[in-house]
Design brief:
The complex is a heterodimer. By secondary structure, chain A is an alpha+beta fold. Chain A has helices at about 20-25, 70-75, 75-85, 95-110, 120-125, 135-149; strands spanning about 1-5, 5, 45, 50-55, 65-70. Chain A is globular and about 45 Å long. The model of chain A has no long low-confidence stretch (mean pLDDT about 95). The relative contact order of chain B is 0.14. By secondary structure, chain B is α+β, with helices and mostly antiparallel strands. Classes of the chains: A alpha+beta, B alpha+beta.
Chain lengths: ~150, ~725
């Protein structure tokens, strides 16, 4: 498995989730766990560029894949935009929101859809798998809009 | 004092009031911020809880053999083998730290089960997977006991709720019931609100490390100092040897204010196995071990004359606590302050159930109480055929309605005027169900937000280095409010130095003690300490300089000093007496007004909130960016409370049936429109720097504003939260 650009040779039990592997064994604690059942999006990482809930993924399924966590995206304009637009409060959902937004923008671009179609309503719909209990949604949407301009 | 106040009045604020980026933003967007479950120690072991599956029982046997046989399991702690903890201290007003005992249960020191979900064993293992798996194999045998679990059934047995020094439980002025009988126009409504849970996105987690009698705990807590003292008491060790670290807290909202089972059991397990232990609760375990907001039933009856002037206000409530503890929720508290009336009757009742203790959740009392009073005011406006904004203006009090105390400041009239204008309130068609946009029925609603203002004293030290760098030290808690950011702004202005030169150290119990983050007290409380410490520092520097002019750096250099440090310490007894005396004559609060637009699908009943505007009278704003975020956050949580959130408790077993983010529906991106936030920015003359706490006020009134908009859109008055589509569909 390649993680944030580095080759990792790992020996893991078949029941270990990708989220636990990244957090507990590789120390990539930017991957957060909010529910451990795919309901909150805090553990979102990119697998070969596609956003996934790493808590719902078994690590062994991602043998040979390229995994990118928040630690591997920097520096990304979204990170600065999140700070500028205050798209965060406690910060716990933030890495997942940013990884998800990166994946979402790539999905939208790959679909060949008109970039102008990515308006606020569309961003909200596409980001609805990432919960923020502090309610920083306005700032998150503004940050994403900002980097797409 | 006069000199410094003059200086402050003449020196323009450079940073206070500015939308400064939060100082911890970078750590949070890069993943560098480490939360309680993210600290690594060599030899770290992992714990998982076993929860009781019955509501009330004695454990007659507990079979741990299968759990112990799981490879990697280090130990299984039960009431049969766990080391003893001291019992939780009872609340004493002489030691406010005793307030953090969340329940009266001494975990693993008793064979008694007091609620369905109570931890009855802890498994410690080499990996989290082994601990979680082994926990499922522990088999307690119960002798079940009768349990009282059904809130609705027990409501008639409710007893009067006790008040306290800071919160009266009831009020009587005139004869409200008699006035209701003779009022030309009345409404008399019964409301219900369900239990809610905080659902901070970071599940509660503790990493506990013992070194002899010394203990280090990484914990997402809203109250570092009180947690330290509580742990020292429970584990019988000196307080100075206990260190609590909480530089990042992944949301709290009241759920991390008290000390719950997981924290204690992680520390206990670490002591038992002689290794560092991490206990990261699953989402379900948070529901089973951390209390939520009480359900309520409320009656609001209003009487008015034909002009809409209130003649009677009746607001009564029933809420619940656990038999093992909990916070009686001041449900009718806001009604003490909102509207003028010659006759007012307020009562709060409570029932005790065999459920986990309830606890404070963002604006306890006001959040659910304003749903009832503000919905009833709206319904009265319908009865009178009067604009609901106008009805509120006609009843806006000059003095506190129940007792005639003065308001320290109150700008609700201005808030209504500004909000109505910005929202386009006057342009609406006031008739119910008259505004349509395709399949959508469109409605607008308005409601008032109210939350009392309190502060506590804080210990703060400020160090000025010869290099011009300033370090503010204070054990405050940061869980997303922007606490460190605003205190850095304040210190920079007080000392007249660039913001970049100020660093705030926080989130560590070895720093000077600060009050907990709760009751919207933190920002103003610590600002008071920071201002006092900066004043003291300036005096010290002036003395060093002996009146000669010069910059701080020059004065320190001339005096041969590397740094100057000023400390201020709180005098709690004096402060409490002063506070109580002030409360005899003054009422202070944060308040505001919500305007919203909803769209209700005429066929399916689906409700979408399409526009929101809030105007807040919340004293001076320190940071327009983080303040807006916090006010929006309260509104978003209020939207969940209004439309989708509800903790379902099985009334037969006491088990929470939806302990997950898949089954308990918090608002998502698609549920939240742009929220337009305005401030009146009028300093409160009685508070440090004119600041008023803003953490809770904005959730108050949200559910009523939504309900009132739904009433306007559809003609249906929904009295029971949450407002789900089945409640607005005809027939």
């Amino acid at each position: 498995m390649r993680v944030n650009g580095a080759e990792e040779k790992l020996d893991v039990e078949p029941w270990v989730s990708l989220a636990d592997l990244l957090r507990d064994r590789l120390g990539l604690t930017g991957v957060k766990k909010g529910c451990d059942q795919g309901a909150c999006g805090a553990c979102t990482v990119l697998a070969d560029g596609t956003r996934i809930n790493s808590c719902l993924a078994l690590a062994v399924q991602y043998d040979g894949k390229e995994i990118t966590t928040i630690e591997g995206v920097a520096p990304h304009p979204l990170q600065e935009a999140f700070v500028r637009h205050d798209g965060l409060q406690c910060g716990y959902c933030t890495p997942g929101q940013i990884c998800s937004a990166i994946g979402m923008l790539a999905e939208h671009a790959a679909s060949g859809a008109d970039p102008a179609a990515l308006d606020e309503a569309e961003i909200r719909e596409r980001m609805s798998g990432n919960l923020c209990r502090c309610g920083a949604y306005n700032g998150i949407v503004d940050a994403i809009k900002d980097v797409t301009r | 004092m006069t000199t410094t106040e003059t200086e402050r009045a003449t020196a323009p604020a450079t940073y206070v009031g500015k939308p400064v980026d939060r100082v911890d933003g970078r750590a949070k967007v890069t993943g560098e911020a480490r939360f309680a479950a993210e600290h690594h120690y060599p030899d770290l072991a992992h714990a998982a809880l076993v929860h009781a599956a019955v509501a009330r029982a004695r454990i007659t046997a507990i079979d741990t053999a299968a759990a112990r046989a799981v490879p990697g399991v280090i130990d299984v702690l039960t009431h049969e083998n766990a080391p003893a903890m001291k019992p939780p201290p009872k609340f004493s007003p002489l030691d406010l730290s005793t307030f953090v005992s969340a329940t009266s249960v001494n975990y693993l020191a008793t064979d008694e089960v007091h609620w369905n979900g109570q931890p009855v064993a802890v498994v410690v293992a080499e990996t989290p997977e082994a601990a979680r798996h082994a926990a499922t194999l522990v088999r307690p045998v119960y002798q079940e006991l009768p349990a009282v679990l059904d809130f609705a059934a027990e409501e008639p047995n409710a007893v009067p709720q006790k008040g306290n020094l800071l919160q009266e439980s009831e009020a009587d002025k005139g004869d409200a019931e008699a006035a209701l009988k003779t009022a030309p126009v009345t409404v008399d409504l019964r409301f219900t609100t369900p239990p809610y849970h905080h659902n901070a996105l970071e599940p509660h987690a503790t990493t506990a490390v013992w070194d002899g009698d010394r203990l280090t705990v990484h914990e997402g807590t809203q109250n570092i100092a009180w947690l330290r003292k509580h742990l020292a008491t429970r584990f019988g060790v000196p307080e100075r040897g206990v260190r609590v670290l909480a530089p990042y807290v992944g949301g709290g909202f009241g759920g991390k204010a008290m000390v719950w089972a997981g924290t204690l059991l992680a520390v206990l397990a670490a002591r038992a196995v002689g290794r560092p232990v991490r206990l990261a609760l699953s989402r379900a375990a948070v529901y089973h071990t951390v209390g939520g907001r009480t359900p309520s039933t409320q009656r609001v009856a209003l009487g008015a004359d034909a002009d809409g002037r209130l003649t009677a206000i009746v607001h009564t409530s029933v809420s619940r606590t656990g038999r093992i503890g909990g916070m009686p929720e001041p449900v009718t508290a806001a009604t003490r302050h909102l509207y003028a009336a010659p006759n007012i009757h307020l009562r709060q009742h409570v029932v005790e159930l065999d459920l986990l203790a309830n606890t404070a959740m963002r604006a306890p009392g006001e959040a659910i109480g304003t749903f009832a009073i503000e919905s009833a005011m709206d319904e009265l406006a319908w009865e009178l055929g009067l604009d609901p904004v106008e009805l509120r203006l006609r009843n806006e009090p000059e003095r506190n309605p129940v007792d005639g105390k003065r308001f320290s400041r109150r700008l609700l009239r201005e808030a209504y005027a500004l909000g109505a204008e910005r929202f386009g309130w006057r342009d609406r068609d006031p008739r119910a169900g008259a505004t349509r946009d395709g399949r959508w029925l469109v409605g607008m609603g308005v409601a008032t937000a109210y939350h009392p203002t309190l502060m506590l004293p804080a210990n703060v030290s400020v160090r000025l280095g010869a290099d011009g760098r300033v370090v503010v030290r204070c054990g405050l808690q940061e869980m997303g409010m922007g606490a460190a950011t605003v205190q850095a702004q304040i210190a920079a202005d007080e000392l007249g130095v660039p913001l970049e030169s100020v660093r705030v150290e926080y989130g560590d119990s070895s720093l000077p003690d600060a009050p907990g983050a709760g009751g919207s007290v933190q920002t103003a409380s610590i600002a008071g300490g920071v201002v006092a410490a900066c004043d003291k520092l300036k005096r010290m520097v002036r003395r060093l300089g002996r009146g000669a002019p010069g910059t701080y750096a020059e004065i320190l250099a001339r005096a041969g000093r590397d740094h100057v440090t000023a400390e201020v310490k709180a005098n709690m007894p004096v402060f409490m007496i002063r506070t109580l005396l002030e409360r005899r004559r003054l009422v202070k609060a944060a308040c505001g007004v919500h305007f919203c637009e909803v769209r209700v699908d005429r066929d399916t009943g689906e409700i979408r909130v399409s526009r929101w505007l809030g105007v807040f009278d919340v004293g001076r704003i320190v940071n327009a960016k983080t303040a807006a975020s916090q006010l929006r956050g309260g509104i978003v949580m209020g939207l969940g409370m209004a439309l989708s959130e509800e903790t379902l408790v099985d009334p037969r077993t006491g088990r929470i049936m939806n302990p997950s983010l898949a089954d308990y529906h918090v608002p998502v991106h698609a549920d939240v429109p742009h929220i337009d936030v305005h401030y009146l920015d009028e300093p409160d003359p009685t508070m440090p720097l004119g600041l008023v706490g803003i953490g809770e006020v904005s959730i108050a009134g949200v559910a009523a504003a939504v309900a009132n908009a739904v009433r306007h859109a559809t003609g249906v008055r929904v009295l029971d939260l949450p407002i789900t589509l089945d409640k607005v569909l005809p027939g």
